[in-house]
Amino acid sequence: MNKIFALLLLFVSACSHSYGNVQIANVIQVQKDISGNISTPEELIQRYGEPQQIFTKDGQQVYEYRYISVSGIPDEEYSTGAQHYDIRYIYVYFDNQILTRVENIARRGAFPPENVFEPFLKK
Amino acid sequence: MFKIVFFLIFFLINGCAFHIPNANDVIKAETTFNRDVFKRGGKSLVIIEEENNVPSSIKLHGRFTFINQEGRRFIFDVQNIGIFMLDPGTYVLENFELYGRSGYLSAHINYEKRYKAYFAVAPEDVVYIGKIKTNTIFSKTDIADMQQQKKKVITITNISEDISSLPTAFLGAIQQQTDKGLEPRLMRWVDTLITGENKNE
Predict the structure, then answer these.
(1) Residue B70 needs a FRET pair 20 to 30 A away by CA distance; which of A20, A77, A97, B89 works?
(2) Looking at the partner chain, which of B21, B40, B169 has a beta carbon nearest the beta carbon of A71?
């Protein structure tokens, strides 16, 4: 019976698509891990791989990791398939190669994500 | 018991096969404007408009496929106004088409290599890259033979700066969400038929 359940889960999980670094999916845990165990960019890359983006903000280098997924079993005939989205971002700040802070953003909801500009577009 | 499980698996397989989310959904989830991600993530906000008067029983809208310097493809479906939150970088047009869908039916005009375009954005840019306007300059129906009717449509697509036509409330919302005003910066748009680069059309 457990095998059947596992098989069902496999099919359900197959109904998803993702992009980015799956290692950072649990952003809270990753944020704690980086804050407690990482101090340089080299250590960060060694543990989590190359970031999706590196940019400069307020004079500091920011390493950005992200993981985005959409999933769901559709209930509409013409649905493209996606029912839910889940985005995870981790930002690691370095000042002169020394880690200064770690931030995360996590958002999930019904697909497509809300367009905050939609109410203002009606001419 | 076996039958119930079998039908359940069968249902799931069919559901997944026809409706599995795809890469475009992921791109859409990621590029939809999010204030927190925009402010913290060194993103840029790009606004593009599209308008066409191509005759079609299914309403057509612009579909732009851009590829960035990392080789990632972004499909922008633009119905009137498109708003995208992007990573800084250079985006090169790979394909432009007019596309529409209604239930099972779809219609499209694929311009393939006819148009070349690119734009570049830096962190925290809030830019308007233009209105892409497709005008029909010739449209007629020929009866090629007794069995088939062919509709011939000739169009030309160009770019214009029409930021003043954007709703004032929308411009205000941009300012409020990004703390910056919308800067007009037209993307480079080339019709290869006019420049003579395209010999096939």
Answers:
(1) A97
(2) B21
Q: pLDDT, tens digit, for every residue of A61-112?
A: 999 999 999 988 765 555 567 889 999 999 999 999 999 999 999 999 999 8
For residue B155, what is the DSSP state? E
Q: Number of A:B CB contacts under 8 A? A: 137
* Structural contact between residues B137 and B152, judged by C-beta atoms closer than 8 angstroms: no
Chain A residue closest to B18 (CA)? A81
- B contacts of A105 (beta carbons < 8 Å): 34, 36-37, 40-41
Alpha-carbon distance of A42 to B95, in angstroms, equals: 39
ipTM above 0.95, yes or no: no
Cβ B190 vs Cβ B131: under 8 Å: no
Q: What are phi and psi of B2, to 5 degrees?
A: -60, -40
In tens, the pLDDT along B176-196 reads 999 999 999 999 999 998 888
Tokens of B24: 């475009």
Q: Which residues of B touch A57 (CB under 8 A)?
A: 40, 42, 123
Distance CA B117, CA B134 (A): 15
The whole model's pTM is what?
0.84
Place of tokens 């069995």: B147
Task: Tell me the residue type at A30.
Answer: V
Closest C-alpha among B150, B114, B153, B106 to residue B132? B114
What does the pLDDT read at residue B201? 47
B80 neighbourhood in chain A, CB within 8 Å: 121
Contact across the interface for A80 and B173, Cβ inside 8 Å: no
